[in-house]
Amino acid sequence: MYRFYGWEGADVRDGRGLTPRDYYDILSGIWAADTCAPRMRDKWTQENPTFGQCSITAFLIQDIYGGRVLGVPRRGGTFHCFNDVNGCVFDLTSEQFGDEALDYENCPEQLRETHFAKAEKKARYELLKARLAAALGEG
Length: 139
Known about the structure:
Layout: H1 20-28, H2 54-65, E1 68-73, E2 79-85, E3 88-90, H3 112-115, H4 119-135
Antiparallel strand pairs: 1-2, 2-3
Helix pairs in contact: 2-4
């Protein structure tokens, strides 16, 4: 059983026939401290691999399925990113919040140009993208 938000209805499929649940399984083996947001890296653990991985994961999933990346407003003016693929809403990195319930309603769209204006975030995205390609036998 999965625990990420929206897992029950995450039935969209890509050209390989893979669902978000399949990508969660693959990403669980490749998320790492070096793909975690630097400001959060000291708290990243293998027991909580989704920690600090939201934006790079959401934009990578957008590459696969299309749709929009939305953001749950957080303290300090940041956003927790998740995916909406034609009404199929899911958040592969929601487990990092434990039992905290996030409000996924009326969240603003997040733009990769804004997020990737930070060179370190773009580099982490590229690293995760390369690892995913290798895991899929493409790299």
